[in-house]
Amino acid sequence: MRLLVLVVLSVALMVVDARFTLLKPVRSQMSLVLMQSYWITDLPQRLWQGVASQFGSRTELVAENEKLKTENLLLQGRMQKLAALTEQNVRLRELLNSSALVNEKVEVAELIGMDPNPFTHRIIINKGERDGVVLGQPVLDARGLMGQVVELMPYTSRVLLLTDTTHSIPVQVNRNGLRAIASGTGNPERLELRHVADTADIKEGDLLVSSGLGQRFPAGYPVATVKEVIHDSGQPFAIVRAVPTAALNRSRYLLLVFSDTRTPEERANDAAQAQENLDAQGGGPIIPATVPKPAAVIAPAAAAAVPATAPAATPAKPAATTPVKPAAAHPAAAKPPATAPAAKPPATQPAVVKPAAKPPVSAPATTGGRE
Amino acid sequence: MVGATASRNGWMIWLTFAIGMLLSVSPLPQFMEILRPLWLALLLAFWALALPHKVGMVTAWCLGLAEDVLYGTLLGQNALILTLITFLVLSLQQRLRMFPMWQQSLVILVIFGLAQLVQLWLSALTGNRQPTLALVLPALVSALLWPWISFGLRGLRRRYKIN
Q1: What is the rounded distance in angstroms from the CA atom of residue A110 to the CA atom of residue A127?
Q2: ipTM tops 0.90
Q3: Cα-flanking dihedrals φ and ψ of residue B84, to 5°?
Q4: Which residues of B touch A27 (CB under 8 A)?
Q5: Contacts of A79 (CB under 8 A, 6+ apart)
Q6: Which candidate, A100, A97, A123, A146, places its Cα nearest to that of A35?
C-alpha cells in the first residue's frame, strides 16, 4: 500500500518536473544543502593543491614566473594589434550597417564536480543564480567553447558539455564560412558534423568556430578542429569528425560569457537614458571641448531637445527607422568617428550616443552631415 | 533503559547515508565511473534488513529525492528506484536473513539489476538514452561489495548498539 502511494507520488513528481516549472524552487532549495557534497568531495583535491602550492620550490616558482611573464608579453603584443583590429572591425561593420557585438563580458568560474553518470557529460561549477548566471549561458575555457548552462541552482549550476549526446551546436568553418551542426557523440574527444554534403569544402585541420546562428552561443569562438573527413560512396553525407579545442575533461577554470541580450531598440533607449543622466549632471560641456566641430554642434542641440520634447521612449522610434540606427544601437562598440577619426576614446562616446536622442530635432540633416 | 539506548544512536544511520551520498558523487577515474556501486541502495538494503522498523520505503523515497537533486535527474526518478529496491528487500526480508552471504549477494544482484533496468527505461523515456547493458555493471559491483558492507555495518551496529 505504502509502495503504491510512493510510486504514484514519484511518477507524479516526474511528470510535473518534466512538464512544468512548478518544482524548480523546491529543487533549488534542496540543492542549497545537497550541492555542498560536491564541494566536500572536491575538498581533498583543493587541500592538496593548497599544500602543493605552499611547498612549491623556489626555483620552480621562479621558472613559472619567467614563463608567465614571457607569455604575458606575447599576449600583450597580440592585444595591441587586436585593439586596432577591433576598431577596424567595428568601422567595417558600421559600413555594412550590421549590429554584431565585438566585446562580451566574461567571468571566471571554477569546476567543483563532474556528473557521476558516465553516460552524460555534465559538470558542476561554483557560480549560480545569485552570481547572475542565466539558463543557456555559454561557457568557455581558455581554448574554446565548452558548453552551456542547463540547470541553475542558487550558488552552483550544471553545465552541459558540447560532447554530450544530447547537445548540438551550430558552427562554421573558419576558412570559408561553411555552416554545419556539430553534435556530441558521448566521447569527450569527439564531435561529429551532421549532414555535410559529400562535395562540401571541408578538410582535415579546419578550425570550426561557433556561427551564432542558434542565438545561444556568441559567434566566433573556436569549437573544434576537424580531425578526419571520410567520403564513403555508400553514405548520403560525408562523415566528418572533429576534436573539441577546449579541454573538456581537463579544464578547472572556466569562463562564463555574458552577452548583451538587449534588442537594438532597448540599447538605444538605454543609451539615450544614460545621455540624459550625463546631461543632467552637467557632463555636457566636456564634450564640445574635446570633440571635433560637427559633433559639438550636435551635442548642444540634442541636449536642448531632450528636456524639451522627448522622454527616453519616444526617441527610440525614429532611431529605429533611420538608417543610422545600428551605429547608435550599441554605445560601447559604435564609433562613427569613422568620420571624425581624431578622437576615438570615451570622450566621443557620449556624442555618438546622441543620435538615439536626437532624431526628433532634425534627423536626416545631421546624419547626412556625419557621413 | 532499553528504550533509552534504542533511540539514542539513530543518528549513526543518517551519518552512513550522508557518507553514502558523498561516495555517490565523489570523482572517479573515467573508466571506473561506469562501475560506481549504488552506495545509497546498498546502505538502504542493509538498514532495511537490520532495522525494518526504522528504515523503510519512506526513508528510501526521501533519499531518492536527494539523489535526484544531486544528479540533476527528474525529481522522483531515483526516488522511485530506491523505493522499489527497499520494497523488494523488505518483502524478501525473512528469507534474506536466513541466507548465507553468497546467496544474499545473488539476491542483491538480481534486485539491483532489476532496479537498473527500470532506471534504463526511465532515462530512455526522458530522452537520455544510455547505449548499452553496461549499466547493469553497477549492480554486479554492488553485489560483490555486499558482504563487506554487510560485515562492516554489522560491526558498526554492534559497537554503537544502534537499534
Answers
A1: 8
A2: no
A3: -60, -45
A4: 69, 75
A5: none
A6: A123
